[in-house]
Amino acid sequence: SFVKDQDIAMAVRFGRDVWSDTRGFCHHEFVHDDAREGILANLLADAYRQSAQSDIAFESVQFAGIGIPKGNISTGNVLNAAPHIFGPISSKPFPQYARFWSLKVLKLTGLEIRGLLNFIFLADTFELPIGWISASGLLLDYDTARGGSPVGNISIFNNETGEYESVDNLKSYTVVLHDGLIRALKILADLAGLAIDLDKFHDTQVFAWQSLADYLITKPAGLFADDFSPGKRLRPTKFDLATTEHLIESVGTPPKIRVG
Description:
The protein is 27% helix and 27% strand. The chain is α+β, with helices and mostly antiparallel strands and 260 residues long. The strands form five sheets. Strands 7-2-11-6-12 form a five-stranded mixed β-sheet. The protein has a four-stranded mixed β-sheet with strand order 10-9-8-13. It has a two-stranded antiparallel ribbon with strand order 1-3. Strand 8 and strand 9 (151-158) form a beta hairpin.
């Protein structure tokens, strides 16, 4: 089968069974969620930013792969979390083997970042399946009821001071993305008439999945869901109630739901 062939190809490439090794440990299940900010996409964004040593990193929840189960994390889990491939050849039948997406670094001004974020929040208007955006190195307040400018205050992490600082509209910041998100944002920028050049990037030649594998090395105590919880980076200014999956558990028989 195709799946078995893929497993064999991965074993040949890595010189071992990618499902039996250990890259790290996960204390909670990191679920995939297409509809909102999630811990899996936040984790990937953190890995991209650390790998590229950039000011900011973005990932789309719809581009994030299969969630990471609780327990030991294998190379296979890492590849599934960031399974991005690129470059299919239209004249050839599927399945095809293509290259992994790599991380690209752009320089954008604070004003360009604000404009891009505003249009990302409006992506559904253009019927673009970008989904919710996860960010690393950035805090923002938003209100989707504010029409074409849902983004409010933006703060960007200063790697030198170790503090978040209000965005400077005229300052240039480094932003890391992968191939797929750059392509999606280019389509969005063209449709919206946004004057941002997304072609002037530096290719780090680091695969998205490899950045996650490297990130796990820096987390010897393992991954904790609270470190990547939704609502701490992209913060709605209006809400009634919010919680996350890892704070919900079933207790007793018959089971009752406990939050917190």
